[in-house]
Structure formats: C-alpha cells, structure tokens
Structure prediction request, 64 residues.
Amino acid sequence: MRHTEFWARLERAVGRGYYEVWADQFVMSELGGRTAREALDAGVPPKQVWSAVWSALELPATEK
Prediction:
C-alpha cells in the first residue's frame, strides 16, 4: 500500500474534513502509542498503519 492509498482510505473512513485531524490526534497502542501520522513519519509501512486504523475504527472486513 502506498501513502496515497492510505490517505484516501482514511478520508473515506472518517470524512473529508476530519481525516487529517484524526491522523494527527488519535493515538493507537498498536502503533506504539503513536498517531497514524507519527507512525508514517517514523517509517512504519502504510499497510501496517492502516491495519491499526482499521482495527481502531472497527471498520468492516471489506475495508481491510
């Protein structure tokens, strides 16, 4: 998964006006206590970050 796909999925999941705020503020234990943006900036692969987001948001299996 590329970064662009990650951001597009997150936008669809939480909404256009909110996805960047969510990525900057929602801390996930699966990412070592980091936000999605912090994890991506630290070099965590987008697919791994998406898996944590998917779990945190309890998205349907079709979104995994």
Q: What stands out?
A: The radius of gyration is 10 Å. Helices lie at 3-14, 19-25, 36-41, 46-57. The longest strand covers residues 27-28.
